[in-house]
Write a structure and sequence with these properties.
Mean pLDDT: 89
Oligomer: single chain
Order of helices and strands: HHEEEHHHHHHHEEEHEEHEHEEHE
Shape: globular
Radius of gyration: 27 Å
Helix content: 25-40%
Structural class: alpha+beta
Strand content: 15-25%
Length: 386
Amino acid sequence: MAAIMTRRRNDIKEITKLMDECRLMGITTMGPDVNESFSEFGVNKHGEIRFGLAAVKNMGEVAAEDIISEREKNGPYKDIYDFAERINYASVNRRCLEALVYSGALDSFGLKRQQYFLANNKGDIFLDALIKYGNTCQNDKMQAQASLFGDMEEFSITKPDAPVYMGNALDLDILNTERSYIGIYLSAHPLDKYKLFMRKFCTAHPAELSSDNRSILFGKGSEWTCGGIVTSVDERISQKGNAYGRVKIEDFTNEGEIMIFNNWHGVRNSFVKDAVIFMKIKLEEHPYIPNRIDMKFVSIGSMEDMQREMMKRLTITVPIEIFDESFNKILAKYIKGNKGYTTLRIRAIDTSTNTPLTLVNKNDITVSYDMVEALEQFEGVRIEFE
């Protein structure tokens, strides 16, 4: 699979499909890492597929090969300072180092990506301070080796302190930047916290709402719901002088461009770049133009607000014979200390008499996609939101 990914590394959609196939096969696909990645896609000692360093934008084959060669010759890089001391700055320049940071290839050193671009206690940008530190270490080492008598006094070079950053390590800006360097969201996805909500309540994908695909969707029904993150908003003026919008929205599956002509002024404020929205839509045949399907917005709102509204109560119905230690252990894993806004009810059903016993969790919880997926593995379990 790694070899196939290498051959198709320039086709991001194909890479995404291959990653989905890997997930179904139980194979983990991970981002680039200076201590594990090869130049191309490869498999680490744990059987996980790693992105290749050369596949990162702005890296290049020579820089990638130099990092890998040094690692194979002298062992893994111990920390960011050891890395700075050992890399070849003739090939691994600042642009390459930025690419390594933003792609997550230095994450294993324990620093947040934002820290590299903040000023430290001496007022120096940390990434620049690391480059200066690394060059100084290498120059001093070369001078010591070149000393005629080999008795040059050794000086301790002070390691630059990393600036403190208390914010979210994987905020939206970082995720978008990572995507720009490796082509996809890999460390996390901006929609991860809505994954369960979208699975349960979104009936259409953004790409299905484009003008070309709308007729296919209309053939299956007229009322649809769709959600995602707004990736771009472009307002234009038609030949008749009317404003209209071209909006791109992306979910976990794909990105779709929606042309909005009717009532653009009424909905334009709902479409803001990076906003996560949930839409209720009605499709209708145009009264005068044959084969044209128009789209009307019944409602557009924040997905966060809609998730809170539509996931207020969760009922898990489970046969009494399944309600055992194994089930309770998994249930406890996801609800213990997990405060949120969803009321949890457990309906244990005695299948012989069809008699229910209802239990209500005393604290509201946050329901995750992983929790639902884990509980649905038990035969006969039903999960419903009210």
